[in-house]
Amino acid sequence: MAATESWQTAEVPGPKKALIISKPEVVVAMVKRAKRPILIVGHNAVEVKIEGKKPIDFMIQIASSMKTPVVATAHTIREFLERGFEKAFHMPIVDIINRLQDPTWKGLDGKGQYDLALIVGLPYYMEWLVLSSLKHFTKLKTISLERFYQPNATWSFPNISTQEWANSLEKIVSGLEVK
After folding, report:
1. In whole angstroms, how far apart are CA 174 and each of 28, 29, 53, 59, 61?
2. I need a labelling partner for 143 at 20 to 30 A (CA). Which of 24, 61, 111, 171 fits?
3. The domain containing residue 97 runs over which residues?
4. Average pLDDT per block of 10 residues along the chain, 179 residues long
5. 3-state SS of 72-127?
6. Domain holding 118: CATH number?
7. pTM (2 decimals)?
8. Could you tell me if residue 21 is inside a domain?
9. Which among 96, 120, 122, 114 has a CA at the least distance from the CA of 169?
10. Which residues are CB-neighbours of 135 under 8 A, at least 6 positions away?
11. Residue 174 to residue 151: CA distance in whole angstroms
12. Looking at the domain assignment, is residue 172 inside a domain?
């Protein structure tokens, strides 16, 4: 069993911690059940390689299957456009998190608030803070798609190897594909 302690030491998340994603099918079920999911992708999704692929490649496949808005932070928008994915919005991470906490915000498309946020590609410490903010100030469910346990998410992978991470992302992609 993989570790379920915070990857970053000396951080205390509080009594409410993320549920472990023991099977990638859990993510697939959560996404399919969500009415208004959103995918937030940070710059680490283009700077890290897992099993010969970059996380952004998995995220494009997931976003295409989900038909959900994608927010690209930092310089990530360029990578989406270079890969032919033009449905991503560019927004700083602080801005999108503030908007997700605003009960009057109607979303990127004006159709209402989101009920599920999938987050990947942020530095660990930044994702920790982002998820803490969402945990304490919204009713939004969150899923961290990172390979390190994020206790402030609603759901998170435990600390897993890059190979396990790649396999899990592949299973999520195949589970969400329209057959």
Report:
1. 9, 12, 16, 12, 9
2. 111
3. 38-176
4. 59 78 96 96 93 92 90 95 94 97 95 96 95 95 96 95 95 87
5. ECCCHHHHHHHCCCCCEEECCHHHHHHHHHCCCCCCCCCCCCCCEEEEECCCHHHH
6. 3.40.50.1220
7. 0.91
8. no
9. 120
10. 16, 142, 152, 153, 154
11. 26
12. yes
